[in-house]
Amino acid sequence: NGMSGLAGWAGARADQALAFHELHRPGDPVLLANRWDAGSARLIEASGAMAIATTSAGLAWAHGYPDGDGLPLPVLTTALSQIDRVISVPLSVDIEAGYSADPAHVTKVVEAVIETGAVGINIEDGRDPVDLLAAKIRAARAAATRLGIPLFINARIDVYLRALVPADGAVAEVIRRAAAYREAGADGVFPAGIVDAADIRDVVAGSDLPVNVLVEPGLPSVTVLRDLGVARVSAGSGIAQMLTAAARDAVTEFLGQGRYDAMRGGLMGYGEINALYPPAGS
């Protein structure tokens, strides 16, 4: 019946959520090559990814919106449903700052993304007060608990990314915020923009939660990040930006010079790409 079907869905998703939690091992980080639509998600899974995570920027751009907390929820949930259809590994979704300053609205966003397949979220503080993100995390946890999903909540801390405090106080501020977000119910902390090895080591040592870092210029190699105790490494919007630049260059060459060199070299085969995707109804 409908109730047993719902229970079965929740049970399967709960198992997937627990599997996603278990991927966050300090010193053996899960690598997330963030995707922006169903096609890229399936490609990344087929390339060996253990989990799939969205880039909010890439997903917004792919649907014709700027990044920055402005993506309409129906656009997001439609995209997530399409992604969920073609992957079998855990799905984590960047919901930016929850698309609202109201924790009650964040509850609705979290319910919606869980119902479209997510077992993890990223949610960020930006320039907002620490107490506000803590309230949003509590709202997200309550929503997930009601749905029976042990959602992995990754709290993005923007101290480095937005230079919120003087550099000599950044590590201490990240650790302070991490403690507040852990108390609110976060499962991981994500000091986006941190690249200095000593700072990363200090944040790992000062936090009780798995630490996520973002691929940025100057970030140490994954081998070094393992030694530093990092638990998760995110490509962020980097892959989407790289592919956008390649597409722009090919289009510029075609339209401006009438040449096709960029479209002839190093292509993945049509048949190989086509075979990645399940047909409708499967």
User: Which structural class matches the secondary elements?
Assistant: alpha/beta
User: What amount of the residues lies in strands?
Assistant: 5-15%
Number of helices: 12
What is the global morphology? Answer: globular
Q: Could you name the ranges where pLDDT drops below 50 across 5 or more consecutive residues? A: none
Number of separate strands: 8
Average of per-residue pLDDT values:
95
Listing every helix as H and every strand as E from the N terminus to the C terminus, the arrangement reads HEHEHHEHEHEHEHEHEHHH
Q: Biggest sheet, in brief?
A: 5 strands, parallel
Helix % is 40-55%
End-to-end CA span:
22 Å
Q: Which radius of gyration do the C-alpha atoms yield?
A: 19 Å
Task: Write a brief caption for the model.
The chain is of the alpha/beta class.
What's the layout of helices and strands?
Blueprint lengths: L1 H21 L7 E3 L5 H9 L5 E2 L2 H7 L10 H14 L4 E4 L8 H13 L4 E5 L5 H17 L5 E5 L13 H15 L3 E3 L6 H10 L5 E3 L7 H7 L3 E3 L3 H20 L3 H4 L5 H5 L8
Parallel strand pairs: 1-8, 2-3, 3-4, 4-5, 5-6, 7-8
Task: Write a structural description.
The protein is of the alpha/beta class and 282 residues long. The chain is built from twelve helices and eight strands. Helix 6 links the parallel strand 4 and strand 5. Helix 2 packs parallel to helix 4 and helix 7 runs parallel beside helix 8. The longest helix has 21 residues. The protein is globular and about 55 Å long. The two termini are 22 Å apart. 39% of the residues are buried. The mean pLDDT is 95.
